[in-house]
Please model this.
Amino acid sequence: MVDWGYTINKPRAIAYDANDHTWENALQEAVPVLRSCIGCGNCTATCTAGNFVPFNIRKLQTLVRRGEYAGLRKELDKCMLCGKCRLVCPRGINTRKMIVTLKRLLAQPVAAGIPVAPGAASTAGQR
Amino acid sequence: MHTSDMNTHFDPFVIPFTLGVIYLFAVVVWRYVKWFAELPEADRRAFRHALFTVRSLKAVREVVEEALLHKSILRVNPLLWYMHLSFALGWFLLIVIGKFETSAYLKEAFNPPHVHVFFRYFYPEEPFRFHRGFNYAFLMDAVLLFILSGVALAWFKRLRASWLGMKKTTKHTRGDRMALAALWVVFPARLLAESATCGIHQTGDFLTHSTGMALAGMVGPDALRMMELPAWWIYSLALGMFFVAMPYSRYMHIFTEVPHIFLRHYGIRGGDKPGSADNFQIQACSRCGVCIDPCQLQSAAAMNDVQSVYFLRDRRYGLLTDPVADNCLMCGRCETRCPVHIDLNRLRLNSRTARAEKAVPLTDDRYAYLRGEDRSEGTGKVGYFAGCMTLLSAPVMTAMQRIFDAAGEEVWWADKAGGVCCGRPLKLSGETDAARRLMDYNKALFEKHGITTLVTSCPICLKVFREDYHLEGIEVIHHSQYFLRLLEAGRLKLKASGATLTYHDPCELGRGLGIYDEPRAVLARLGTLAEPKQTKKHALCCGGSVANFVLNSQQENRIATDAAAVYAATGAETLVTACPQCKSTFRRNSALPVSDLAEAVAAALEVPASAHRIPAAAGRTAAPAAS
Model:
């Protein structure tokens, strides 16, 4: 069966306020239109990489917007940047810019252990 | 004071000029030696091998034609050409004729450069005592007047660029402004200084004699004597200041264009990753601004600081930022106009590579999930690679199927059930090494299935297949070329609809790969072709380029709407393109119906009367009745 990425997540608690939102802010600043994502899943459904491996760009950006960055690098590396998702996005979100921006945020010095966004090294969106 | 028999040729005012010259040549020689030493060994070897070949002669010819005569700018804009010509050729002649004049007069082959630069000061009487059948003073006056006319144009250009046929002219850096200020003063100061000297001694030719006598009449001989030396000081200071500022300004191109032309003729151009050869290209940019007007980001999206001239400026001074490096359609419209033939797209791309290498380290398991995957279908010597964008356009896929069926072609479908991206979009982001993984996957797939011809509908894929895949024994062609072959071989029969069609040259197909004629030859068999105002190598970009990582959808749409209007103005019924990305972008923004070449061809296929037929102008094809 085709995996459309619409599985039901297991119940879990998210410590939203405890998360670091530096990257989220930087991402929102770089791609403001991201706020208009309606989670339709077109991007995931057309994804070239997603055809071969479980990869859900819609879910990924949602996690980042919640301040959850764990495993982001590994996930992003699956993307081929082909741009199909951009063409099918009904909200006109520049998904390729979103992915490239995320990769650059990841390249900034990361504290040991879990990748946590460094406040000082961030280029934008600091509080 | 100077006298006619003075032979030391020295006055303190020559010091600023002399120091400037020494500084300039020290910096220039140091830089060139350093850049050359940093070239890869293969490039240096290529240089040595090419040095004593006919390529050097060709390079010399181009140096004369471009560095001196600026022939490329003449084609773009005659008035702008005159301005640049007057500076380049004028100054060159001033130096050369001045040198001959000095050497002939002093009867010595060698003398320090300041002697001929300030010759009139040291030998004001020359025109009347020295004829020898050759009036150097007249020539020098004529050349000075030539340059001054260019200076006047440059002043006007600063005031109003449109007077010189440019919508936008270049913004400057601090080094530029210093050099420019000095340059604007140099030649008027020379005129003033020579006029003062000629006025005092009642010498000079048509220009300096007239201005000299006019000056003498205005201020009187005593005042003229008092202002003579200060005028020469100003001239020398302006020259010295220009020479010191030059290596840090756009005027570095004056010298750098010469090695740049030689390296180009030797095939040393740099590559996908930044290298020392790039230095010669970057510094060969004169910031003439010819690249600004063709840029659609400027004309349609009101972005005024990302054009090639600014990109090169920022990169030259180490100030390049992501928003500038990323904000380019890489359509190549500026590159075709660049009078210096700088590889603008390649440089833009390899600056992204430099950044991506730092930002995105390549891990061993990158794309490991592709190992062993093969979702291709069918068998045949002809392979078809739709490409990601074509896979999103079902009508194009259907059209291809119908055309293959009509031609009776056995086809191996590389990616019908979902394939791997060709790698070019990733490469355009700068991740060259990661893109190589995708390329290796596809290359292995093509070789495994033993195809001899690879057809693709996507110019983005086509470009990377041809330039980066190094496919041996597999000919890669665009579907437009494939259709033309089928038609010429009589394997396809088309029924012309008589409709008026207009054709959009996709950037990667046209400027990128030089394929302009085949799509037109195919369209000529379908209907009447109406060419838009900007076409072939000057064709507009649709705005949807995968090379741009900055534009939002509104900005893309503005560019596309602008371009679509040019096609609508032809009066055609349908806009045909040959790229799925262009098609998708135009479909959202065009008043005309948009179709891919494959759809237009499939719709015009001579098929049995029972089969379902759609006219070409409808822009879409239905699935064949049989399948």
